[in-house]
Amino acid sequence: MKILFENWRNYLTEDDTPTRSGYKIVAYEDDKLFSLQNPDLEYRAEIGTIESPANGMFLGTTKDFVLDYYAGMTDKQDALLVYTYNPSDVISGNPNEDGEIKVTQAQLDSIEVQS
Asked: Which of 12, 28, 44, 102 is a plausible cystine mate for 91, CB 3.0–4.6 Å?
């Protein structure tokens, strides 16, 4: 596994509420990220930015779950996106279980290309 980028930060918010980690797999080829749903569509992601899609975003609750469920879905390499989110931003799902959650927003902390 090769870590492309990483954003080191304090994992406590301003009010000292612990943040949680969430995970997502995208495709990787020629130094670009691509959507799993449409591998021809480039996925824009920048370390340190907060993503907040209008309808929320899905994240896996554990790295193992995301790698087991989503890895190898395209002919491209897999890239693991690691996010942090505040538990108060969870729209659905249980962050304490192995599976998926939906959050209103999350900050991208690292991108790891899987070998």
From this structure: 102
d(CA 43, CA 63): 20
Q: Strand ranges (DSSP E) for 1-115?
A: 2-6, 20-29, 32-34, 50-51, 57-60, 77-85, 90-92, 100-103, 106-113
Taking a C-beta distance cutoff of 8 angstroms, is the pair 112, 3 a contact? yes
Nearest residue to 6 via CA among 57, 66, 58, 46: 46
> What is the token pair recorded at 112?
């790891």
**C-alpha angle with apex 13: 8 to 23, nearest 5 degrees?**
55
Q: Quote the domain boundaries for residue 81.
A: 2-113
- At position 88, the amino acid (one-letter code) is S
Q: What is the pLDDT of residues 86-109, one digit of tens each?
A: 999 999 999 999 999 999 999 999
One-letter identity of residue 4: L
Query: How many domains in the chain?
Result: 1
